[in-house]
Amino acid sequence: MKEKLYTVLELKGILNLHEKTIIRFIHEDKIKGKKIGRSWMVSESDLRTYVHGELSNNKVEQTNYETLNQRISVSTVIEIKEQNSEEATRISNSLMAMLNSESEETRNTRFDFFYYPEVQTAKYIVYGTPKAISQIIDVFDVLSSQKKT
Q1: Within this chain, do residues 89 and 128 fall inside the same structural domain, yes or no?
Q2: Which of 13, 80, 88, 130 has the fewest CB atoms within 10 Å distance of its CB?
C-alpha cells in the first residue's frame, strides 16, 4: 500500500498557510518534501512529523476535573502600612499558622510576604481557592475593624 502524498495546494488547506510559505518550509527542511515532476509532494508521515498535532498519533493526555473548584485558583494582595517590621512579621506568622491548619480549604494555599522599610509597608500576596482567600480576607477585615490599643 502506497503512502498518501499531499500537494502544496492540499497542504495549504490543511495547514492554513500560504503556498509560498509551505514551499519555503520545504526548502528550509521544516517540512520534508519530494519534487515529483514540477510539483512538490509531502508524504502523510512527513506531514505528521511536521504538525505533531491533530494528524499525529501522539495524543496529549488531558486531566479531567470534576468541578470548577478543582480548576480555579485566585490571588489577592493585601498591603498594610506598618511602622515596624516586627508587627508585620507577627501578622505574617499568624497568617502562616492559619494556613498550616488542617483545614481542607487552606491545603493548597500559599503566600508571600514582603516588608518595605523605606515606605513602611507590609505586603502579603496570597494564592488559593476562592473559599480560602475569602476566609483570609475576612480575617483581615476583622483585624482592620479592631481599634488599636
Answers
A1: yes
A2: 13
Q: What is the pTM of this model?
A: 0.51
Can you give the CATH number for the domain in which 110 is found?
A: 3.30.1370
The answer to whether residue 62 sits within a structural domain is no
For 103-146, how does the pLDDT look when each residue is reduced to its tens digit (9 = 90+)?
776 677 888 899 999 999 999 999 988 888 888 888 888 878 87
Place of cell 508524504: 43
Q: Do the Cβ atoms of 41 and 7 come closer than 8 Å?
A: yes
| Residue whose C-alpha is closest to residue 42's, from 25, 17, 20 | 25
Question: Which residues fall within 8 angstroms of residue 30, CB to CB, at 6 or more apart?
Answer: 50
The number of residues making up the chain comes to: 149
How far is it, in rounded angstroms, from Cα 95 to Cα 140?
10
Alpha-carbon span 124 to 70, nearest angstrom: 24
Q: What is the distance between the alpha carbons of residues 54 and 49, in angstroms, rounded to a whole number?
A: 11
Give the structural domain span for 134: 70-145
Count up the domains in the chain and report the number.
2
